[in-house]
Amino acid sequence: MPNHSPQMALPSRPTVPVSLIVVAVVALLASLAIAVPGDPEWWKVVVLGIVQGITEWLPISSTGHLLIVADLIGYSGSIGGTFEIFIQVGTVLSVVAFYAHDLLAQGRALLGRRTSAEAIAARRLWIGVVIAAVPAAVIGVAFRDFIKAVLFETPQVIAGALIFGGIVFLLIERFPPRAASTHELGRITPLQALGVGVAQVFALIPGMSRSGSSIVGGLLAGLDRKTATAFSFYLSIPVLGAATLVDLLGSLDQIQPADWGRLLLGAVVAMIVGYLTIGWLLRYIARHNFIAFGLYRIVVGVLILLLAGVGML
Question: What are the helix and strand counts (H, E) for the chain?
Answer without folding.
Answer: 14, 0
